[in-house]
Input
Amino acid sequence: MQAAPITRTGRRAGGRTRTALAAGLLTAVLALSGCGAGDNSDSGAASDERALSAGERNGGQNKAAAAGEAAADAKEGAAKSGTPSKPNPVTATHVIRTASLSVEVKSASKAAAAARTVAQNAGGLVANESTEQVDDTHDSSHLVLRVPQGEYDSVLRELSGAGKLLSRTSSAKDVTDQVVDVESRIATQRASVTRVRKLMDQAERLADVVTLEGELSSRQASLESLLAQQASLKDRTTLATITLDLTEPESAPEDDNDDPGFVDALSGGWHAFLTMLRWLAMAVGATAPFLAAAAVLLVLWRLLRRRGGKGAGQPPAAE
Output
């Protein structure tokens, strides 16, 4: 009858021992978790302090918002550094192609119209065109054509065969790395703008809103600049640029080797005769006023002389 109390006491003692061990293990786990949390907070302290510097300059009222953004940036940076990015084995090649052609044609205006047709049929366009007259004898045209990359070679061949090819230069520049870098920076900047907007929605103080608005404007300006670079790269890698100069040949000099014939001599003599008559008529016309004046003076002089002669020949009258 005494064994039962001893057994219950032993069980109670064993239960208390297990409870104490479980409590000790739980305490140790909590202590380790607290240490780990303290280490993590220490590792992100530097980034939090950098993010909070702007808030401290404005009175320290936007610390919570900046700290949240810094934590998100630190988390994203840790994820990127901890997980190496896998290169894309299939990456499109982006190339900027340009060419310059100088062609001698019979008619610059007709050749320019044909070049416009070639570019439009290839799915391209005419970016610039100008035509001018050189030495009042022949025309010259300058065109800047934009054609798709796939039609670049065929358009070059067709334009080169429009006349006598004087010069041709072409170049190709691989900008694949630049395109990939700009796309990556755009993705990062968009994520940053989204985080700032979320913080603005959560901000309650006016100072926090003002600071976040300034940060948002700066990041949006950077994003727009990157988008402009991306659009420029896309345009130059999608359409190739061809500069075309069309010139007409100079007028050939007349052939002077043929000997003159009878008809040529007759024509030349008639031309000389008409020229002489024209000059004589001009001379008569120029001297006509002087001749008329001299004739009038001569007539008057003769009249006066006759009257004077008659007066001298009569005898004196008788008294």
Observations:
- Strands lie at 95-104, 125-134, 138-148, 164-174, 239-247.
